[in-house]
Amino acid sequence: MASKALSFDVGDYVVYPKHGVGRVIELQKQEIAGASLELYVLRFEKERMTLRVPTNKAESVGMRKLSSDKTLREALETLKGKPKVKRTMWSRRAQEYEAKINSGDLVSIAEVTRDLFRADDQPEQSYSERQIFEAACSRLARELAAMEETDEKKAQEKILDILRAAAAIYNKEKPAA
């Protein structure tokens, strides 16, 4: 094998794009269809899910270590930015948002979180907007929590504080109707 597979150790936090932050709980060897496979066994506590990923496929499915501090700072800066409101059909925007969340890219997830955030004094969200916002915010909070060694609730509160502060700035810019 020419390319060096990503290497994760038992106890490491990893990001699996479709499921978010999980922890490597063991390395297994299994015989499947006559072939011997080495597997990472990942545990996702929030979903109460265990996932087995062949070590040689970890990179191709997008599994990665937690983001760098630089990427985390960039994601938190993204939250402070002005929300981008696209005027395309909701179904198309929803697909784009889902793709960004499932990409596993922290900055893209922060963009979705920022764009779908609604302050208390703003119009209500539709059910599906709220669902996507919560999925993005939760995904972002879990990685933030793992990196800052805190719990998801505190991380989510930090994210919402940043969003509320940004909303207060950008809502003042709008002229009163």
From TrEMBL:
SUPFAM superfamilies the record matches: CarD-like (SSF141259)
GO biological process, one term: rRNA transcription
Domain CarD-like/TRCF RNAP-interacting stretches: 7-117
Protein's name in the database: CarD family transcriptional regulator
Protein's organism: Sphingomonas lenta
